[in-house]
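U., I forgot to send this yesterday:
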Amino acid sequence: MKPTRRLTSTYINEQTPYGTLTAQSLSKAHREPHRGVARGVLVAIGIALCFMPAAGGSKPVQYISYKEYALISLDYNYKEYKCLTTLYGKESAWRVDAVGNLDGTHKVYGIPQGKSEYLKTLNGYEQIQWGLNYIGNRYGEPCIALDHFKRKGWH
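Result:
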């Protein structure tokens, strides 16, 4: 087979009377593999989009535990973290939906067991931040709040 004939044999209209190629449509034999690859790529992209994590990092906040979030919020101060885990463990057992009674008439809510009903509307991470702000403003640090809790039964 001549080189020009091999080259042009995959095209529908091989050559004009002047020896040039006219239509360069690929035959069906060449189109199907490309369509299969394209379908595979589109399916893979669709699946990847379904399982993508939220934007903003490889480990978004919603995928870490409340305790891990508290440790990060305390700048990895393990002494204060241990006091906070003890305090919140006794107060609410780290339950977001915890409700308790302060004195039989006043209810307390969430992980930090605060009097504010606003805590019921927050997720666990926001409750921890609220509790750390409260402790920071009232006691300065979690270990002082824990000492107060041990003496008085509340903080």
